[in-house]
């Protein structure tokens, strides 16, 4: 009797393996669905909004925040959807000017107001002066050039 049990266990095990292999083969021949939830991409309005945001100088991370997705998801959408890619590329020149200005500030050095000054509302005299921090010039920025 023990040998019969072993045989049935082996045959059950073999049947299970054959079924698993058959399922895999069937799944390879069927079109594969993507993992996870459906995409949040909406072709009706997302390219138009992306174009408007890029016209105002939005970065890729700002676009991703506006669409409430991760930056890597936005890059996947750009690669998959030509209308989104075209909407973003149209306004790339505006962003380039923003980058050039930021690089010029870094190359020349700049001041940042950390805390604004506080004034007495009645007399107008300064209660606490503004706290400013100076960032010295960064010579590495002079080597970078946006074309």
Describe the structure.
Strands 1-4 form a two-stranded antiparallel sheet. The protein has helices spanning 2-29, 46-55, 60-67, 71-80, 82-90, 92-108, 139-143, and strands at residues 110-115, 118-119, 126-128, 131-135. α2 (46-55) packs parallel to α5 (82-90) and α3 (60-67) packs across α4. It is built from seven helices and four strands; from the N terminus they run ααααααββββα. Residues 6-11 have low confidence and may be disordered. Among the domains are: 39-90, no CATH class; 100-143, no CATH class. The protein is elongated and about 85 Å long. With 147 residues, it is mainly alpha-helical.
Question: What number is the mean pLDDT?
Answer: 77
Neighbour order of strands in the largest sheet: 1-4
Distance between the termini: 83 Å
Number of strands: 4
Low-confidence stretches: 6-11
Provide a count of the helices: 7
- Broad shape: elongated
Largest sheet: 2 strands, antiparallel
The succession of helices and strands, N to C, reads HHHHHHEEEEH
Radius of gyration, whole Å: 30 Å
The level of helicity is 55-70%
**Class based on secondary structure composition and strand pairing:** mainly alpha
Tell me what portion of residues adopts beta-strand conformation: 5-15%
């Amino acid at each position: 009797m023990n040998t019969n049990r072993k045989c049935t266990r082996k045959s059950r095990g073999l049947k299970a393996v054959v079924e698993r292999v058959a399922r895999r083969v069937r799944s390879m021949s069927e079109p594969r669905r993507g993992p996870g939830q459906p995409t949040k991409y909406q072709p009706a309005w997302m390219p138009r909004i992306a174009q408007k945001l890029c016209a105002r100088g939005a970065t890729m991370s700002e676009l991703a925040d506006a669409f409430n997705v991760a930056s890597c998801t936005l890059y996947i959408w750009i690669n998959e959807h030509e209308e989104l890619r075209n909407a973003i590329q149209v306004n790339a020149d505006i962003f380039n000017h923003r980058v050039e200005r930021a690089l010029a500030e870094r190359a020349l050095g700049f001041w940042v107001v950390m805390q604004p000054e506080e004034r007495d509302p009645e007399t107008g005299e300064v209660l606490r002066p503004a706290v400013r921090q100076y960032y010295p010039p960064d010579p590495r920025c002079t080597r970078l050039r946006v074309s």
